[in-house]
Amino acid sequence: MKTIFSGIQPTAIFTLGNYMGAIKNWSALQDEYKCVYSIVDMHAITVKQDPVKLRAQTLNSYALTMACGIDVEKSVLFVQSHNKNHAEMNWILSCSTQFGELSRMTQFKDKSQKHPDDINAGLFTYPVLMAGDILLYQADLVPIGIDQKQHLELARNVAERFNFRYGDFFTIPEPFIGESGAKIMSLGDPEKKMSKSDDNPNASVYILESKDDIVRKFKRAVTDSESSVRFAEEKPGISNLMTIYGVCTGKTMSEIEAEFAGKGYGDFKLAVGETVADTLAPVRDEYARLTANKDYLLGCMKNGAEAALKISDKTLKKAYKKVGFIV
Ligand code: TYM
């Protein structure tokens, strides 16, 4: 059975982008693959976090991932900092990563621009930590949205370099990018991806929001001044809404065009908002049920960490041997 690894940062309630670009695929893969998923709190501290909020948000993110369909009986779901092997593998791989390749990471450039007062070393070496996350489990496939593709390519390069230096060892991971929904755009600016950390609260839909709030955000979504519902490069706002509607309903872009032919943007936006809210309603209910039982969640977290440690211990030990450490 092939192995899957993926992770998500617990910096805020997940957005519709996280859901459609990643987590929806995570749950769909559980029956066919050995899946390992992580709430990556170590990645989160590359940007300043309030420790109290981060702790709460990590537990919430764990529950939210389960509410989105990750079944802890089928998949390993753990918190990254509960497995110290990630920090250790990070060091080993740092020594097979070049300064130049890290300097080319667009997310590093974007984040350093956004946080000019805190361009810390962790922000720079973040993709190495991410490579370690994946390689520790010898993952074959990594379900991600398009924004993480460059980091995955780096992980592949690092793994290949290590294998070249020390002999074949790491599985070279492939990205798994869904056919649609891999880049959900902001509702406030359709040229920008929807992000957890957007300053404009109307730009992102968070998956626990009420139906009213979701519908309101879609009604306000920035579109163009035409009125035909048509998928086209020059209509990024409407095309983004059509993609979202398509992911929820399974309809193709031409089916959506036919459904809304002769109708205005108002009707279309309302339909998208209501469909998204209805799609997310079971997630909200399940989240409420899960968070009512904190002990159960903490128990799942502990089991997940033990399972992750067990798999990754083997890889780390072999990597230590490969580089010449006495083990
Ligand atoms: P993060 O927490 O930013 O996002 C989690 C996942 O959601 C996807 N995503 C999107 N997909 C479509 N449209 C969007 N607007 C959108 N925004 C986010 C991301 O591509 C991602 O798949 N570095 C990673 C977490 C990570 C990881 C890993 C992922 C750490 N280690 C190992 C894979 C494998 C991150 O910050 O994701």
Sum this structure up briefly.
With 327 residues, this protein is mainly alpha-helical.
What does this structure look like?
The protein has 327 residues and is mainly α. The protein contains 13 helices and 5 strands. The protein has helices spanning 16-28, 41-44, 51-67, 85-94, 99-103, 106-114, 121-135, 149-166, 211-220, 236-249, 253-259, 265-291, 294-323; strands spanning 3-8, 34-39, 76-79, 141-143, 174-176. Strands 1-2-3 form a 3-stranded parallel sheet. It has a two-stranded parallel sheet with strand order 4-5. Strand 1 (3-8), helix 1 and strand 2 form a beta-alpha-beta unit. The two termini are 29 Å apart. The chain binds tryptophanyl-5'AMP.
CATH topology of the largest domain: Rossmann fold
Q: Which series of helices and strands comes N to C?
A: EHEHHEHHHHEHEHHHHH
> Cα-atom Rg, whole angstroms?
20 Å
- CATH superfamily of the largest domain, called what? HUPs
Whole-number total of structural domains:
2
Distance between the termini: 29 Å
Count of alpha and pi helical runs = 13
- Please state the oligomeric state of the protein chains shown: single chain
Strand content bin: 5-15%
Average pLDDT: 97
Structural class: mainly alpha
Q: Low-confidence parts lasting 5 or more residues at pLDDT below 50?
A: none
List how many beta strands DSSP finds. Answer: 5
Query: Shape, please?
Result: globular
What CATH architecture of the largest domain do you see? 3-Layer(aba) Sandwich
Helix amount: 40-55%
Q: Which hetero ligands occur in this complex?
A: tryptophanyl-5'AMP
**CATH class categorisation of the largest domain:** Alpha Beta
Strand order in space, largest sheet = 1-2-3
Major sheet summary line: 3 strands, parallel
